[in-house]
Design brief:
CATH architecture: 2-Layer Sandwich
CATH superfamily: TT1751-like domain
CATH topology: TATA-Binding Protein
Distance between the termini: 20 Å
Strand order of the largest sheet: 1-5-4-3-2
Helix content: 40-55%
Strand content: 25-35%
Number of domains: 1
Radius of gyration: 15 Å
Length: about 130
């Protein structure tokens, strides 16, 4: 399932809060892809303001990879942010349990549940819920 949260705040405000919310939940931001800027630089501008934050918690990453390395192609976790209008922003993330289900990785189900809860918490913290 894709976890979604529509927030009644401007894109820039939401964008600036994601890294802090990750830190508060012991996750780090590894990289941020600002797709509108990247594609414009490549000569393929888009009309939407969209970015993706790659986030990781080394403790969970090491445990998951030790138990089931097939999920490496789905790592790190991601949170996407999209500007809907001047005062509305959408945050989305594919939750780890969906990945576990897709690759039949029941051996990491408990870890996926923990990470699911943290990602939901990060998004809810950013949205103010």
């Amino acid at each position: 399932m894709i976890y979604k949260q529509e927030i009644n705040k401007p894109f820039e405000e939401v964008f600036s809060k994601i890294e802090e919310a990750c830190k508060n939940n012991k996750f780090g931001v590894m990289k941020v892809y600002e797709f509108d800027k990247i594609l414009e630089e490549k000569g393929f501008p888009i009309s939407k303001k969209i970015a993706t934050f790659e986030i990781c918690q080394p403790k969970f990453a090491s445990q998951v990879l030790e138990k089931n390395s097939i999920v490496a192609s789905f790592m790190p976790c991601r949170i996407a942010i999209e500007k809907i209008d001047d005062n509305k922003t959408l945050l989305t993330s594919v939750l780890p349990n969906e990945i576990v289900n897709a690759v039949d990785a029941e051996d990491i189900k408990d870890l996926a549940n923990e990470v699911d809860a943290i990602i939901r918490n990060i998004i809810n913290e950013v949205s103010g819920e």
